[in-house]
């Protein structure tokens, strides 16, 4: 989903550019049926919440049209700095891109 918006979880290094990353701080998954090696799965991704510096995603996994799992992840927007990461507000342009996948309220 991020790639479809022109974003990345870990952008490449480039001189002078501020690099943001999205470490996951929470994750859940409820399994309804087994997935096996070589199964082709479809994963639908929706944005369920956009906070000041975090974003919540919902995932629905299906195989041949049947749901086999649901899950969620919360990720925090961070600036990569020498020696670590620092939480930062989601940039306005990124926020607008994420809204394209946000569920209707």
- Share in β-strands: over 45%
Termini separation comes to 20 Å
Radius of gyration: 16 Å
Could you tell me the number of beta strands?
7
Strand order of the largest sheet: 2-5-4-3
Tally of individual helices: 1
Helix content: under 10%
Helices and strands: which structural class? Answer: mainly beta
Order of helices and strands: EEEEEEEH
Q: Which blocks of ≥5 consecutive residues have pLDDT under 50? A: none
| Average pLDDT number | 89
- Describe the biggest sheet? 4 strands, antiparallel
Which overall shape is indicated by the principal axes computed on the Cα atoms?
A: elongated
Q: What are the salient characteristics of this protein?
A:
1 helix; mainly beta; single chain; 105 residues
Summarize this, please?
This protein has one helix at 92-99; strands at residues 20-21, 24-31, 42-50, 54-63, 66-76, 78-81, 84-87. The protein is mainly beta and 105 residues long.
Describe this structure in words.
- The protein has 105 residues and is mainly beta.
- It has one helix and seven strands; from the N terminus they run E-E-E-E-E-E-E-H.
- The strands form two sheets. Strands 2-5-4-3 form a four-stranded antiparallel β-sheet. Strands 1-6-7 form a three-stranded antiparallel β-sheet, with no helix packed on it.
- A hairpin with a 2-residue loop joins strand 4 and strand 5 (66-76).
């Amino acid at each position: 989903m991020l790639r479809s918006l022109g974003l990345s979880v870990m952008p490449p290094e480039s001189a002078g550019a501020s690099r943001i990353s999205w470490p996951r701080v929470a994750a859940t998954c409820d399994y309804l049926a087994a997935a096996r090696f070589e199964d082709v799965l479809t994963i639908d991704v929706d944005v369920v919440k956009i906070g000041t510096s975090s974003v919540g995603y919902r995932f629905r996994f299906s195989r041949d049209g049947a749901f086999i799992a649901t899950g969620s992840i919360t990720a925090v927007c961070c600036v990569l700095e020498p020696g670590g990461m620092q939480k930062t507000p989601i940039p306005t342009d990124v926020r607008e891109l994420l809204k394209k996948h946000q569920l209707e309220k």
